[in-house]
Amino acid sequence: MKRLRERLSRAQGGLGQGLLALLSRDRLDEDTWESIEDTLLTADVGVTPTQELVGALRTRLRVEGDKNADPRTVLREELVKLVDPDMDRRLQVSGTDGRPGVVLVVGVNGAGKTTTVGKIARILVAEGRTVTLGAADTFRAAAVDQLATWGERVGVEVVRGPEGSDPASVAFEAVKQGVEQGTDTVLIDTAGRLQNKAGLMDELGKVKRVIEKQAPVTEVLLVLDATTGQNGMIQARVFSEIVDVTGIVLTKLDGSAKGGIVVAVQRELGVPVKLVGLGEGADDLAPFDSGAFVDALLG
Ligand code: GDP
Q1: Does 148 appear as a known binding residue?
Q2: Which residue's CA is the closest to the ligand 1 atom numbered 5?
Q3: pLDDT by residue (tens digit) across 122-131?
Q4: Is 225 a pocket residue for ligand 1 (Cβ < 6 Å)?
Q5: Strands (E), 208-272
């Protein structure tokens, strides 16, 4: 958690510091509230959550007129409320009846899917679980090689098909192998060509169906690049229409000052951020902890 705070605070510190500076002014006039709104919108918090937060701050710091209220305490409490709606953030990686749990990892190319699959595998193996990886991003030959490298690094088997093969057949084989070998969890990397929504819908639908013939899909993780802002939100919406997303992985938070997207995407999809990516290294994936996140925002 210490690292989460260090990594995040480097990129995000500006948001909390900016808000605190504004809230600490002697007079909280309309100009100040507008600047507060701008600061939140610039950090991708989204329109509705911004209005709600500003409404709450206005009530507590101005209307109630508590001159002794500490802006930092009030801001922290309100941010925690915003970031931490009561959501279950545990990864569902266990199957039933002796079958593996299957985690499907989806998102547009470049969001960090393959890297995230590798990092999750590493975490699960460190917890003593057995893992099989399925390289169903068959569209990009490099993705399959990249996953194979992660497999070697983490010490888990990677099921892959010939170049250009059907993603569903690779997913089928990976889960089949997981069932036969009694693996705890099968992680499936998928392709994310959003330019063809109908094609992607067919492809992911088929991938899911062939998996479910053998073992339950326990988690569908949508990987989103935090640096893509509103564009990322549009992608998130499209994916949530295509598959039943159960959790979000927000990558590249180390390089983005737009941590507000955590709030926006949870609100939009009604799905919790479960993991955050904080760098390219094998250990740079952390469970999302709302308290630590808000503390990092406040610097
Ligand atoms: P995919 O196309 O969705 O499978 O994306 P990749 O896993 O290939 O990742 C794309 C690029 O983003 C790679 O260079 C990764 O190293 C990088 N990347 C992934 N996650 C993170 C992260 O959390 N932080 C940073 N800084 N880079 C990341």
Answers
A1: no
A2: 112
A3: 999 999 999 9
A4: no
A5: 217-225, 247-251
